[in-house]
Each structure stands twice: as C-alpha cells, then as structure tokens.
Automatic annotation (TrEMBL):
This is Alpha-1,6-mannosyl-glycoprotein 2-beta-N-acetylglucosaminyltransferase. Its EC number is 2.4.1.143. The keyword Lyase does not apply. Its cofactor is Mn(2+). Disulfide bonds join 182-193, 264-267, 315-419. GO terms for molecular function: alpha-1,6-mannosylglycoprotein 2-beta-N-acetylglucosaminyltransferase activity; metal ion binding. GO terms for biological process: oligosaccharide biosynthetic process; protein N-linked glycosylation. It comes from Gossypium hirsutum (Upland cotton). Pathway: Protein modification; protein glycosylation. It is a single-pass type II membrane protein.
C-alpha cells in the first residue's frame, strides 16, 4: 500500500514537472516569435516599402518601359525601387478611412534637412482639420532619417513619393556626376569632357540642378501621375520642409478657395503667406491680392494645365530656381498679371536660414539652438478670414519679372531635355495606354 502511495506521489511530481516544462517551452516559443517579428519589422522599416514591392508591379513595369522610349536616363536598381514605392497606397487609412469630400490635398516637398522636417511635421500635427485630408511627401532622393520622420506621422493619411531621377540617386552617371562631365568653367573642346555651360560659363552642379528637377518632377507626378490625385479638380497646397504652418492654415485656405471665384475671379491661386517672406501680413480687415508667393501656395488643375503648356519656357530658362523661373518667364507668358489671394495675417512662415540643401546634421543645422521658437497667437489658432471683407490689390510689386535673364546654373542640354521629358512622361504613357485599350 505504501508503494502504491509513493508511486502515485511520484506520478504527481512527474506531471507537475511535465506541465512546468510545457509552460517554459511555450514562453520560449512566444519569446522567439516576438524577436523574429521585431527583426522583420526593423528590416521592413530600414528600407522603404521592401515588404510590399512585389504586390502589383505590372503597371509600374509598363511605365518604366515606356519611359525608356522617352530617352529618360537608364535607371539603376535603386531608382527602379523608388519608382515602385511611388505606386504604394497611402498609410494610416485604417486610422482615417475616408477623406473629407471637399478636402485640399497637401504636398510637402523635402530634401535632407531632418531638423527642419521635424519642425514642419510638428506644426502640421496641430493644424485644425489635418485629419480630413491626404498629405503627400515628395522626397528629392532617399535619406533614411527623413524617411523615418515621415513614417512616424500618425495624424492623417500620408503618402510618400521619391524622385527616381534625382541626381542624389545616381552617384556615377547623369543626372548625377559622370566621370567625364565638365566641371566649373572647363572648356569642353580642350578637356574632351561632356556638358554645355550656362550663360556665365559655368557647367552643371547636380546638387544645384536637383532643386528645379525635383519641383518639376513633383508637379507633373502629383497632377498627372498618381492615382490619389488623378482627376482631382480642387486645389492642392504646396509647402516646403522649412515652412512653419499655423494651426489655422487649413481652415483659412478652405475659406480662401471658396472666396476666390467671388472676391478675385482673376486670381490664379491662394496663398498662406505674403510673397515677401519677411512680412507677417498687414493686419487689415481686408483680403489681399498680390503676385504669387512661394510659401504655402495652392492652385487647381486648370492652372496646372496653363503651367504645363509652358514646359519649354520653364525648361529652357537659365536659372536653377523653380520659383524665379516661374516669376521671370512662365507667369509673364500668360499675358495678364498672375495674382494670388491671401489673408491679412500669415498662416505660414519661412524659417529656413540656408538654401541649396544645407542644414543637414547636428553641427551645421540652420536652426537656432536646434529648434524654432515661433510665436502663435490665439488669433492664429482659428480661422481669421471674414467672407464680408473686400480685396486690396497690390499693383506693380517689386520682384523678378519678364526680362530677367536668370542666375544661371541651368545651361546643360541634358538637364533641359530631362526637364522636357518629365513634362511628357505621364501624358505619353496615358496616350499609349488609351491606344492599346482602343485596339
């Protein structure tokens, strides 16, 4: 009897040990799975969209093959990868499944100034109505720190696009630097190098020409190359990585867009800030009509078509700045003054201290003490534009006008042709698709 009791006790101990072992194994398995999931997550976030690249590439492949017919530069592997990522759907659709019916899409174009980008993203997070719309972030090349900041946005739907023909994506060939490129004031005949100089005798600098290339590629892509904005009849707002956006910006813009046909039917756009970036507004009880500014500007597809028809003027003007090119040659070619409508108080501020893509890194960031102390009064937190206001029109404002020859930096025939190709890229592709469908 004692033996039986002892064996029963032993059996009980064995069962307890077996149960404990099973629990321990379960914990180990769960832990291992968690570690594996973490590794996969980290790898996925290190390079943009790698886990999704093979979902549906048929349309992307067609675009690439047709691009070759336009004599666009031969893409390297990284450029092709970026072009595929551009076709990915927006993120955060689970958090914001529907966009507001009258939403104004916001496009933020950036290069590689992460401290600047953190400021503008933080300001956007506090904008009233931001969750109603889509934010498109257009990158001039791929930079990991910039990508991580954008991937952290949770306050609205967000889509990233990367310029696949950015000079920063081509380290050893055009549009980047080629080994046989002419440099500075080289004589192409004597040096046996490639390139045509600008009006001042200087050869191209990829770092400089990327400014104009990115803006033009972005415009053509946003208006004519994305499913999310295709057929968009409303306005699209364009801001840059060194623009601080006030909380009332979106609501003010909605008011300006609705009032523009009534108050200023000849205005081409709506602006969040004065054309003089040093001003904060007049503070009047009046709307303002003035020349187009380059901080927080919004226009519709009809205006884009007018701009697009001036592709040759844009692409052949010898100035590396997109905005000066527009002021000095594109807008004057419209035949009448190009006005924009804005409020008497700014809703966006340019805070950048340096241009030409400087300011990346901790040591040379162009922000005081690594931050921006922007005063936001109570009046700037809510819409402060009144429908009953009249319009004050500024005539004969100073600035770049027709006749200005440009600052140069844009004389290379290859840059001009690439610019023209961007203008034709989506139109030629869509025409080709239509022809295939009809046949």
């Amino acid at each position: 009897m004692l033996c039986i009791v002892c064996s029963m006790a032993n059996c009980k101990k064995l069962r307890l040990k077996d149960a404990a072992l099973k629990r321990m194994l379960s914990v180990v398995v769960v832990t291992l799975l968690g570690v594996l999931l973490l590794i996969v997550s980290l790898r996925t976030n290190t390079t943009p969209g790698l886990s999704e690249l093979d979902e549906d590439l048929s349309e992307i492949t067609d675009i690439q093959s047709f691009s070759e017919k336009l004599n666009l530069p031969k893409q390297n592997e990284f450029s092709i990868r970026l072009a595929k990522i551009n076709q990915m759907p927006p993120r955060n659709r689970d958090l914001y499944p529907k966009l507001a019916k009258d939403h104004i899409t916001i496009v933020l174009y950036v290069h590689n100034r992460p401290q600047y980008l953190q400021v503008v993203v933080k300001s956007l997070s506090k904008v009233v109505g931001i969750s109603e719309t889509l934010l498109i972030v257009s990158h001039d090349g791929y930079f990991e720190e910039m990508n991580k900041i954008v991937e952290g946005i949770k306050f609205c739907q967000v889509k990233q696009i990367f310029a696949p023909y950015s000079p920063h994506v081509f380290p050893d060939s055009f549009p980047g630097v080629s080994s046989n490129d002419c440099k500075e004031k080289d004589d192409a005949g004597k040096k046996h190098c490639v390139g045509s100089p600008d009006q001042y005798g200087n050869h191209r600098s990829p770092r400089i020409v990327s400014l104009k290339h990115h803006w033009w590629w972005m415009m053509n892509t946003v208006w004519d190359g994305l499913k999310e904005t295709g057929g968009h009849n409303g306005h699209i707002l364009f801001i840059e990585e060194d623009h601080f956006i006030y909380p009332n910006a979106y609501r003010n813009l909605q008011l300006l867009v609705s009032l523009k046909p009534i108050k200023c039917p000849d205005c081409y756009a709506a602006n969040l800030a004065p054309c003089d970036v040093n001003l904060r507004g007049e503070g009047w009880d009046s709307l303002i009509a003035e020349r187009m500014g380059n901080v927080g500007y919004a226009f519709n597809w009809t205006v884009w078509r007018k701009i697009h028809r001036k592709a040759k003027e844009f692409c052949f003007f010898d100035d590396y700045n997109w905005d000066i090119t527009m002021w000095a040659t594109v807008y004057p070619s419209f035949g009448s003054p190009v006005y924009t409508l804005r409020g008497p108080r700014t809703s966006a501020v340019h805070f950048g201290k340096c241009g030409l893509h400087q300011g990346q890194g901790q040591t040379n960031a162009c922000i005081d003490n690594g931050s921006v102390n922007m005063q936001v009064d109570d009046i700037d937190r809510v819409a402060n534009i009144r429908p009953e206001w009249g319009v004050h029109v500024y005539d004969n404002q100073p600035g770049y006008k027709a006749g200005f020859k440009g600052w140069g930096g844009w004389g290379d025939d290859r840059d001009r042709q690439l610019c023209l190709n961007f203008a034709e890229m989506y139109h030629s592709y869509n025409t080709s698709l239509s022809a295939v469908t009809m046949s």
